């Protein structure tokens, strides 16, 4: 197999898995290396059969392909010496990847379990509006004091900065006097913790499995 174009690459003769997908792409896999192909041609591309001449046939080639990228002109030439198994399947319409544990899921679960933020608290609103965008949760603790909660899957400095800006705007509302902030995430980076502490913001690590009702055994830290 030879790739010719912006770079040149050669794969020596070996047993491979060739995957020709419905979008036209061709992927060449070995038995190792996890999911990553050894070589490939991404769409838009075209696959054409090459005539097997006497020279190729004498080398043991029984079938040959040339895959050409329609924008760059790069080519991938495949010479097949033996077909161990050949099968075709129509996979139908792909519904796409449905992710579990995205920020929307965390927000919904935490809105239903605001005691994790402050015992005895109550939810005011999800997506509480500000002039620069909504803060994820607005709640009030048992004494009625407002708390703004920003939720991330992985908490970094940018998330703390975002919550800081929300708190600055919300704190100007006389109905939200004394508002404090909670930065909640499944994982919070050390630098984000330091910045949050400096800004007077509490950090809350969310155990997603436990919040779904599956006890993971991992303690929740504040």
Give a brief rundown of this model.
19% of the residues lie in helices and 32% in strands.
Content of β-strand: 25-35%
Shape: elongated
Main pleated-sheet profile: 5 strands, antiparallel
Low-confidence stretches: 214-222
Ends apart, CA distance between termini: 56 Å
- Give the beta-strand count: 13
Strand neighbour order, sheet with most strands: 2-1-8-7-6
The percent of residues in helical segments reads 10-25%
Structural class: alpha+beta
InterPro entries: Endonuclease_NucS, NucS_C, NucS_N, NucS_N_sf, tRNA_endonuc-like_dom_sf
Pfam family, one: NucS_N
Keywords: Cytoplasm, DNA-binding, Endonuclease, Hydrolase, Nuclease
Domain Endonuclease NucS N-terminal PH-like: 2-95
Would you kindly provide a written description of the structure presented here, covering whatever features stand out?
Residues 102-220 form the Endonuclease NucS C-terminal domain. This is Endonuclease NucS. A hairpin with a 5-residue loop joins strand 7 and strand 8 (75-80). By secondary structure, the protein is α+β, with helices and mostly antiparallel strands. Helix 3 packs parallel to helix 4. The longest helix is centred in the C-terminal third of the chain and has 14 residues, at 157-170. The model is unreliable at 214-222 (pLDDT under 50). It contains five helices and 13 strands. The protein has helices at 54-58, 103-112, 157-170, 190-198, 208-211, and strands spanning 2-4, 9-10, 17-20, 26-29, 39-41, 45-50, 63-69, 75-80, 122-128, 135-140, 146-155, 180-188, 202-205. The strands form three sheets. The protein has a five-stranded antiparallel beta sheet with strand order 2-1-8-7-6, with no helix packed on it. The chain has a five-stranded mixed beta sheet with strand order 9-10-11-12-13, sandwiched between helices. A three-stranded antiparallel beta sheet has the order 3-4-5, with no helix packed on it.
């Amino acid at each position: 197999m030879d790739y010719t174009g912006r770079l040149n690459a050669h794969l020596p003769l070996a047993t491979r898995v060739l995957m020709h997908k419905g979008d036209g792409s061709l992927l060449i896999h070995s038995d190792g290396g996890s999911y990553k192909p050894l070589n490939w041609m991404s769409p838009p591309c075209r696959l054409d059969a090459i005539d097997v001449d006497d020279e190729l046939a004498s080398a043991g080639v029984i079938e040959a392909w040339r895959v050409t990228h329609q924008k760059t002109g790069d080519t991938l030439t495949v010479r097949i010496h033996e077909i161990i198994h050949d099968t075709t399947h129509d996979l139908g319409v792909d519904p796409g990847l449905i992710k579990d544990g995205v920020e929307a899921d965390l927000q919904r679960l935490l809105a239903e379990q605001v005691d994790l933020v402050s015992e005895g608290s109550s939810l005011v609103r999800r997506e509480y509006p500000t002039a620069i965008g909504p803060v994820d949760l607005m709640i009030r603790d048992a004494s009625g004091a407002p708390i703004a909660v920003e939720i991330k899957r992985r908490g970094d400095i940018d998330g703390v900065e975002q919550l800081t800006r929300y708190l600055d705007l919300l704190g100007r509302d006389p109905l939200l006097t004394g508002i404090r902030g909670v930065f909640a995430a499944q994982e919070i980076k050390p630098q984000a913790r330091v910045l949050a502490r400096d800004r007077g913001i509490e950090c809350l690590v969310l155990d997603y499995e436990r919040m779904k009702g599956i006890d993971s055994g991992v303690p929740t830290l504040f």
